[in-house]
């Protein structure tokens, strides 16, 4: 085995152990944890802003924001009144479970209903790293083009949900939604695909309903199955 | 030194040796080589299509297309009549000099004036890998937002040229061009910043002129300094 592959295997094994510890802690707290993954500029932070505004008052929320540099995204979410912590990865192209655990330890967030983990903007590297989340969310903006699921199959195959963002830009770009649906259906037949626009509000209700139903299912379906 | 850092150092040293060999070969051929780097969906292939259409008949061109999966981008450029080879990285988030050398060996491209290397869609991983190019080009589409240079400083600091793409979308998105200019000026004061739209043709002449003048400068300024 080459040294590169050997090191990578050990890194992923260490990550999986830490992720299992995180998952157990999130389960004990009844916190739904979502790991948002996309290209830079697909609208992860904007979707979170819209989500937080929509669910504020009904659910408690917090966010961990992964980036190479700047506190900008955490600042945007703190401005909405939720606890948010910026994790700077020191150049790494993805979050890992150790960074998430260290971030949570440092912030001492209160126990929340929903914890959003916004990964570093990257469609490739975050894919293999379990963060203890309940689901990975793959975002794809209409401006990025309709060929991306087959070009980046790893994340679209592993995502629990695929969210198309910036639906409001669709009239101004070349984006064949049915082509995207077909690619996602091939890679990941179980994953719901939601079409959203944080600008117009399209699809935001369905997205928030999905989060709430997953939270309720995690907690034993108390409200999902009355 | 940790095993991860040690392996990474050795990988980059090996890469730099191979890149130096490539650079010497490109110099001997008088080929200008540009390494295009951006997020997925910023419009690298579309800019290349427009460039190839603009320069066809005046210069010979070829392209190496880096992707995780699909032959799609090479197919798009071959349709324009230039030799193009798809390099599938086997899951890796960037091209490296060895992949470029192997791709060139396999294709036996004719000697060309301009060789375009389109990296894997990723603003982070390709940054550290020298491919023997004359310059790295960082592309940023208006749809990605105006906060990206400071969030991904590595590539914007190392780019020889920054190309803003999809200027036609600017009226439909939040994008403060002056904010981007200020960030790029801080990170990389020498780098020209060009604003382009492959759809309207805005800035394509300036971009192609820049390529031609860099080619002439590399060949001894025969036409650039008459």
Number of strands of chain A: 7
Largest sheet of chain A: 7 strands, parallel
Low confidence ranges of chain A: none
Q: What value does the average pLDDT of chain A take?
A: 95
What's the quaternary structure here?
homodimer
CATH fold field value of chain A: Rossmann fold
Structural class of chain A: alpha/beta
Q: Percentage of helical residues of chain A?
A: 40-55%
CATH homologous superfamily (4th level) name of chain A: P-loop containing nucleotide triphosphate hydrolases
Distance between the termini of chain A: 53 Å
What structural keywords apply?
homodimer; 226 residues; alpha/beta; Rossmann fold; seven-stranded parallel beta sheet; 8 helices; 41% helix
Compact summary:
Chain A is α/β, with parallel strands linked by helices. The first copy, chain A, is built from 8 helices and 7 strands; from the N terminus they run αβαβαβαββααβαβα.
Notes on the protein architecture:
The structure is a homodimer of 226-residue chains. Chain A contains eight helices and seven strands; from the N terminus they run H-E-H-E-H-E-H-E-E-H-H-E-H-E-H. Chain A is of the alpha/beta class and 226 residues long. Chain A has a single domain, classed as Rossmann fold. In chain A, helix 2 (44-55) packs across helix 8 (204-218). The longest helix of chain A has 27 residues, at 3-29. The termini of chain A are far apart.
Task: Give the helix/strand layout.
The structure is a homodimer.
Chain A: H1 3-29, E1 32-37, H2 44-55, E2 61-67, H3 72-78, E3 84-88, H4 97-107, E4 114-118, E5 135-141, H5 148-151, H6 153-158, E6 161-165, H7 177-187, E7 193-195, H8 204-218
């Amino acid at each position: 085995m080459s040294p590169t592959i050997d090191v990578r295997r050990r890194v992923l094994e260490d990550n999986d152990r830490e992720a299992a510890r995180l998952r157990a802690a999130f389960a004990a707290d009844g916190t739904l944890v979502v790991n948002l993954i996309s290209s830079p500029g697909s609208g992860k932070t904007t979707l979170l802003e819209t989500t937080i505004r929509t669910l504020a008052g009904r659910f408690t929320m917090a966010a961990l924001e992964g980036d190479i540099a700047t506190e900008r995204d955490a600042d945007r979410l703190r401005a909405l009144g939720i606890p948010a912590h910026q994790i700077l990865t020191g150049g790494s192209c993805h979050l890992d479970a150790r960074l998430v655990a260290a971030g949570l330890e440092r912030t001492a967030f209160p126990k929340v209903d929903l914890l959003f983990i916004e990964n570093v903007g990257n469609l490739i590297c975050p894919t293999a790293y379990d963060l203890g989340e309940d689901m990975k969310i793959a975002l794809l903006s209409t401006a990025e083009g309709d060929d991306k699921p087959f070009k980046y199959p790893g994340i679209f195959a592993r995502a629990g949900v695929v969210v198309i963002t910036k639906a409001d830009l669709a009239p101004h770009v070349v984006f064949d939604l049915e082509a995207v649906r077909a690619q996602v259906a091939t890679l990941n037949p179980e994953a719901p695909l939601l079409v959203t626009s944080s600008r117009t509000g399209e699809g935001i209700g369905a997205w928030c309903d999905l989060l709430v139903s997953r939270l309720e299912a995690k907690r034993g379906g108390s409200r999902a199955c009355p």
